[in-house]
Amino acid sequence: MNRRKFLNTGSYVAYAGFGLSHEIVSVQASELNDTAKKIESFKPLLTPQDAFYDVSRGNPKPFTLKGKALDEARLTPETWRCEITADPFTEEPHTKVASKLEKSLTISDGTALDLPTLLSLGKKHEVHFLKAMQCLNLATPLGQGLWTGVPLREVLKLCGKMSDVRRIYFWGFHNNDPKQVFKSSLSYTQCMETPPGELPAFLAYRLNGNSLSLERGGPVRMIVPWSHGYKSIKWLNHIFVTNDPRNNDTYAHGNNDPDSYLKTAAYLDSTLEGKKFKVGDFVTVTGQVINGLGGLKRVEYWIRKVQCETKPLGDDAPELLEAPWKPCELQPEPDWKEFLPKSAKPAQMLGFDQKKFKALSWPPRYGMCAFFVVIRGLTPGEYEIRARSIDLNGYAQPEPRPSQKSGKNSIQVRRIEVMQNT
Ligand SMILES: Nc1nc2c(c(=O)[nH]1)N[C@H]1C(S)=C(S)[C@@H](COP(=O)(O)O)O[C@H]1N2
Ligand SMILES: [Mo]
Fold first, then answer.
1. Distance (Å, rounded) from C-alpha 362 to C-alpha 330?
2. 359: containing domain
3. 0.70 cut: is pTM over it?
């Protein structure tokens, strides 16, 4: 980072809070882009396929298969097939009649969906979606990608008329071992109808403009734009419609909210943790913020001086709620025409103004971007730095969904030390 540049272009805002005074080196709008480019700890807006943090069950993990085993698992573009079948299940009082499909698609009768058929559906129905992949149970975003594919509802139409269907399940290759199956589901409505400006659940075959890698769940993976990662099933090979209205996702068994939406939340980069600075140094705080269900108003930070024995603060501690939180900057929106793979069309992007090719919100809905703040003037000592998001309803993280089993969004803290110059 170029400190001179900050010094020359920043206008300084000073304030005092809780006996602590420091300067926020504020960045003028015209300088935002230049400044952001110099911050080395920013994660890229589009995560390369192999740089996603991986969350996969299975033993062996499907992406480690090779050669004949890979063909037998139907995990190559030529061998990939997806079956679509109906559940004959009935049970009083909730499921009086069984679901039906006019036409099932199965491997045994040679009708299962293959990749050429899916790609040809894509010529008419393709969608692109910039999505933050976030595990409901992890406090760091896994990555962000531009996912491309065909809406699940268009694929279901291949089966003709559906009747008495209230949930749609899907799962992927699991070593033919029922104990390893990882499945997820949507309600009939969530599958068939999409709110204006949003995107439907879709079968993705490209990521960042390239074929979806085996490690990221290729040849074909489900993407559920609004939800946490557990709905986005990798190595997809079965779609199963049922009239059982209950949610029986694999994640429901783990005490998780099985119909969660992504949470609006700020996540601090871990690079700051334990860092030592000298008096007069610029302290650059960075992280990533997800624009979730409640939208995003801003990201804030709070820095306080601490002693070794200072007790940790709960997210509802009065000191924290009443602290002098100050706004952070968001990484600027890129020039999408330059930035996105050529194949991405604005008309098929969630939350984009189709004529201007700009996101309707920043970061785009269910996407994320980096945030930062530059601080100077800290006196020697140890500090805690926190960040939180404020949603469009005015709720500060982790409200309005403090239950961490509907997504990890507790307020993160990093400790740094400022040392006396010797
Ligand atoms: N088939 C299958 N799909 C899966 C999983 C899995 O274990 N098996 N894990 C899910 C979970 S819990 C998450 S958070 C995301 C992680 O996606 P990634 O590994 O591409 O980052 O994949 C989801 N899809
Ligand atoms: Mo997950």
1. 8
2. 3-42+263-419
3. yes
